[in-house]
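Reopening this ticket.

The earlier resolution said the output was attached, but the attachment link was broken on my side. Pasting everything inline this time so it's all in one place.
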Amino acid sequence: MSLLQTFQIASSGMTAQSQRLNTVASNLANADSVAGPDGQPYRARQVVFQAVPVAGQQGLAEQRAQAVQVKEVTVDNTTPLRRQYDPKHPFADKEGYVTLPNVNAVEEMVNMLSASRAYQANVDVAATARTMLLKTLSLGQ
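Inline output:
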């Protein structure tokens, strides 16, 4: 694998983790909202990644380097929405319950820390590859 491919892989990781961080931020921002623009409660979103081969490689498929990209951002329809008893709330139903998003703030904070560390790891890979490239260029002087 060439150093340029290393930059491609690290860059793809940073891009994917950046989108993951934005999705977590959106989830946290809407964690206590009662209704979105469509009048329905917000549902948590999750980023799904997929591996993609790095361009310009030859050899066995099992030995080729792979980058990452966002396959899709899914809406969590399996986790039930939260219901909170607040009969004075304007969005309360007949029984006095308000339906809130299915966002778990603790899980989202853990997801945010994981994405942040993965992003930083990719930055470190790119920085190390840059240093190696500069050292290689200085050998010819």
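Reporter confirms the inline version is readable. The chain has a mean pLDDT of 90. The longest helix spans residues 105-138.
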